[in-house]
Design a protein that fits this description.
Neuraminidase; four-stranded antiparallel beta sheet
């Protein structure tokens, strides 16, 4: 960030990083090192079977340098989380000839990310990690199952060894999800994009933790909502 002659501060370009139809970017810190991952959706040669890239900040030059390639398929979302002493990177696969794809959770093995768990998804667009009563959860927003946008998004719960399916949530072409807390109560919101009845004039939804599961709290009028 630089200061101009009028006293205002502004950002200046530091670096260009190659990408192929990039749809997501995620930064995180592991053992004091800063990483940046770019999720590529589509390349010129292999279409949606294009790799995504992890970069690492080189402190002396203050530039990101190539660190690792992740073999990915039609990436639409990235989400990082640290659980205990473990580091995870969830990668949402949206489409590669089909919406029925296994999205991937990668785990840091001390030197690089390796495949930890595959989760069945339907046109996945977004992952969100969150904590509830000290338990760790991972939510995936599903957009389309190949036939309809009226598909279910899924909440997974960490059991100490892997992520297990905890609850399905009815969504309509979900393009985003987020979790938040108000007065010690946890909520999840989904940005709904489309369904066959309302088209793009579709309501997005907010769910509230009931003590055992998430229950629908409120619908909000949105128009082709993309993120929440």
């Amino acid at each position: 960030m630089r200061e101009c002659s009028t006293g205002f501060h502004f950002f200046e370009k530091v670096q260009d990083l190659p990408s192929r139809g990039a749809t997501a970017v995620q930064h995180f810190i592991i053992n004091g090192s800063l990483f940046l991952t770019i999720g590529n959706n589509r390349g010129d040669i292999q279409n949606h079977k294009t790799s995504s890239v992890v970069y690492k900040m080189d402190e002396p030059t203050e530039k990101f340098t190539f660190y690792q390639t992740l073999p990915t398929r039609g990436v639409f979302g990235l989400e990082y989380a640290s659980i205990s002493d473990k580091h995870f990177l969830a990668v949402a696969y949206h489409w590669d000839g089909t919406y029925q794809l296994d999205s991937v959770v990668y785990q840091w093995n001390g030197q690089r990310f390796v495949v930890f768990q595959k989760l069945p998804t339907k046109g996945a667009t977004h992952f969100k990690f969150f904590t509830l009563n000290r338990d760790k959860y991972l939510t995936v927003a599903n957009h389309h199952d190949g036939r309809t946008h009226s598909t279910k998004s899924v909440i997974y719960k960490w059991n100490g060894l892997k992520f297990n399916k905890f609850q399905e949530i009815a969504t309509k072409g979900a393009m985003g999800c987020t979790a938040f807390e108000i007065n010690n109560v946890t909520y999840i919101a989904f940005a709904n994009y489309y369904n066959s009845q309302q088209k793009h004039s579709v309501q997005s939804t907010v769910f509230k933790w009931s003590g055992r599961h998430f229950a629908k709290l409120q619908s909000l009028q949105t128009y082709a909502a993309h993120d929440s």
